[in-house]
Sequence to fold (138 residues):
Amino acid sequence: MDMFNVTGEKGAKFRKNQAPRDSDAKKPNGRAEWVAKENRKRLYFAVSLVAIFLTIGFVAYHYVEGWDWLTSLYFMSATMTTVGYGDVTPKTSLGKLMTVFFMWVGISIGFYMLYSISKFREMEIDSRVRKLIAGTRR
Fold:
């Protein structure tokens, strides 16, 4: 069975979201731009995921534990960042179960966001700093 690419050329294989080859790096929309775009999308997704998860958590604690909004946000932030001061603790069984869930999932999402920030910094900021340093050495 013959494979066709997007332009219909015979024999070429095509994958959705396929990264351009290294030989395309000099062209506009080459591999470097594709990687930068993917890193930005990953970062936006991670930040959105943390915001949504944090919102769901503090709304849930507000209604389940009967805490005010600020206390709920404070507890959820302390839980997701693994600080856990211990000054506010859930009293109901459902609240305790939610805390276990929010700890495991929230910490995982937080690490994913840190990874995404690190990748973005590495690809976007470090490359600019290297170019700046290289330009001053001449």
Confidence is low (pLDDT under 50) at residues 1-5. The chain has three helices and no strands. Residues 121 and 127 are 9 Å apart (CA to CA).
